[in-house]
Amino acid sequence: MSVYRVGILGGNGFVGGELYRLLSVHPQFRVEFVSSESKAGTLVEKTHKAFLYRKVNPKLTYAKLSELDGQYDCIFSALPTGVLPQQLEHVLQHTKRIFNVSGDYRFTDNNVLERYYPKSVATTQQANSHYFIPELSEVNPQATVVNLPGCMAVASIYAIYPLVLHSLIEGHVFIDAKTGSSGAGKSSGETHADRVNNFRLHKGFEHRHVPEIARIAHTYSSDALDVSFAAFSLDIARGIFVSAYSVLKQGVEESDVKKAFFQAYRSKPFIRYSGHAAPGPMLKTVHGTNYAEVGFIVKEGKCLSLVSIDNLLKGAAGQAIQAANLYYGIPETTGLITEQEGIWP
Ligand SMILES: NC(=O)c1ccc[n+]([C@@H]2O[C@H](COP(=O)([O-])OP(=O)(O)OC[C@H]3O[C@@H](n4cnc5c(N)ncnc54)[C@H](OP(=O)(O)O)[C@@H]3O)[C@@H](O)[C@H]2O)c1
Hints:
The chain is an alpha/beta fold. It contains nine helices and 13 strands.
């Protein structure tokens, strides 16, 4: 069994911490480098409370990104959007492949970049990059930067993909996503007092995940489909819940929708398709897991599709490891299934 040497960039952040927690017990990846600018010289375990009582403890020390040295089979990058492009040349001297969860290489179209990713405009063209959704995409052996989708984008994509693929909907799809506070990262200025006992709009219509969702609609169907999207802030730490309202084409029945979802997801180990049975997708049962729960309701020519994920896992660290498993020919679920999924109550 091959064991691959890996590094983590941005290891002191929320996503970096989850990458470290999962990769440090993955049987085929061995973490040998973890970057932090502010914690260089500190034991990685000291900064992540998940390690307080953990027996498996790799005892690695953070180093600055500039100190990245030697060769790694791959690097997981959890840096803020805009940072990796500035460091790409340096990082690629030490690895042939990067699994990237930031927004940097999701688009090459300058109009999209200027509008949604202004920090990535000047540098995004440098890389041989590949946008990769584990359930939808094929491995591209030439790719040097494998880009994972945005967390709210991927949950929204799971909600509409079967409908788009089978050309079941038309006109306009309205999507809203509610997200927990860890989605904003460790350095978010919002305090617990700001967030708790509240529910509010985060961003309407102009969110950067809109073009990703729209691109899926255009990639998998020739039907013109307008996508509207808004994101809301929940007062929980982790979790994303997406509701997508679409209009079914004339003659499309509930059984067609059921078949489309079943066919799209039946062989996908991390998609739990609950059909139209109550209670459908929930946050509690995906918390701390790499699962996406997917369900729908059809009524009078309309479809409401629902998805729940854990933003730090299926929306970031978990899907990056899932992608790496697929890229290295390792069984897709390796290192991502634990004995305690779906904790209840
Ligand atoms: N949070 C989510 O739910 C989520 C979901 C999907 C994708 N993402 C993406 O994942 C990435 C990380 O998100 P996060 O939530 O983990 O953010 P975070 O908690 O803010 O962590 C980012 C880490 O990067 C380091 N960093 C910041 N600026 C740097 C620079 N100029 N050079 C080198 N390192 C720098 C930080 O500080 P130190 O180096 O000082 O430790 C920190 O440890 C982002 O691109 C985000 O968009 C996040």
